[in-house]
Amino acid sequence: MSQDPGPGAPPAPLDASVARRMSRQPRRDTAPEVALRRELHRRGLRFRVDWPLPGLPRRRADVAFTRRHVAVFVDGCFWHACPEHGTAPASNADWWAAKLDKNVRRDRDTDRHLQLLGWTVLRFWEHQDADSAADAVEAVVRRAGGGGPTCPATTPDKGPFRTGPAVRLP
Q1: Are 64 and 114 in contact (CB under 8 A)?
Q2: Is 56 exposed, middle or buried (0-12, 13-18, 19+ CB in 10 A)?
């Protein structure tokens, strides 16, 4: 059993084997991320991968359109508490509840931070179709007036895309 790390400290797993398994989880290049990136690239969009977020050490966007200030995240159903597919482990339930809650709070904090900097934040669940996610990303990036040499400029009648709250698209 581990000791209570105190207030404000991250929760620590009670079992060393859990800590080892967690440390081996891929942090980037998951199958859903790669599928989305492949589709975005096929459509002529160019972007940064695993891009460090400004002002947020140790946080990264899965896909970033830096010139257009669009950050895209592909959230895992388990790690980010998907309301449709997220599960709550029965073993060590209190620790896992705190861990997953902290992940969700960190996501909301990241969204707020980026929005204050003028970024548009798009979040997708790992179970969502890569083509549909790419449709949504492409629409936002093209409205923002960029994304690569094949992207048309923003039209005068539509104006630039306005940032708003983080968008969780279906």
Answers
A1: no
A2: middle
